[in-house]
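Weekly puzzle thread! Below is a chain. First person to post its structure in C-alpha cell form gets bragging rights.
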Amino acid sequence: MLVRGDRTYLVEPGGEQGTDLGVLEVPEDVQPGETIETHLGDEFQVRRLRGPDLFHHFERTGAPMVPRDIGLVIGETGIARGDRVLDTGTGTGVLAASMARAGASVVSYERDPGFADVARENMKLGGVADAVDVRTDDLTEHVGDLEDSSFDVLTLDTGDAPSLVAHAPALLVEGGFVAVYSPFVESTREVVETARDVGLSNVRTRETIQREMQFDDRGSRPSTAPVGHTGYLTIARNV
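Winning reply:
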C-alpha cells in the first residue's frame, strides 16, 4: 500500500499507478517502510496492508460489513488463534479475512459463484488464502454434513439466518458463539426467537450505531453525515 497524507493506493509489486502528483512505478522487490517517488519527485511511503485497510481496498461485490461491526463480532465472540469459524454470506469477504487475520481458520459459504471468485482473490490480497476456505454453495444444504464438526464460532450475514441458527447447538462446541448480522429488525427478531427456542444462552442484540465527531472553527458537534446506523448484531452462546 502506498501512502501520502490522505492518499492511499494499492499497487502490486512491479505495477504502475497514475496520481495527481505523478506516476508511481513500484519495484518488484519493494518492501514496507521504503519510500517511492513519482516521476515528478513527490514521495509516497510503502506500508503493509493492515486489517482496517481491507475494507477500503478489497474488490466489492456488495456492501461489506464495516470495521466497527467486525470489531464487535471479534470482540464479543473472542475469536483468536486456533479457533474454527463457520461463516456464511461471504460477499466481499472482509469479515472472513479479518477473522483469519485474528488467527482463526474459516470455512465460508457464498451462493453466488461470481462473488465467491472475488472473495477468493480478496483472501489472497489479504494474505489469508490458506486460512479461509471459500465454498461456492448454500450452507443450508450442507448443515447436516457439518454437524458435530465442533466449530468455535458461527457467523451469519444472510437472509436465512434464523433457519441456520436452529442448527447452532449441533455445529458449535460447548461455550461456542453464534454472531448474526442483519440490516433489518424483522429478521433480527426471528433470529432471537429461534436462538431462545433451541436453548442458546446469553442471547442479546445491539443496534450498531456511531456518531462521528466534527471539529471546526465554529465549534464541536456530532457530524451531520447520514451514515450512523449500519445494522443489528445478535450474539448468543451454546451452553
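Puzzle host: Confirmed. Bonus trivia for everyone else. Residues 2-46 form one domain.
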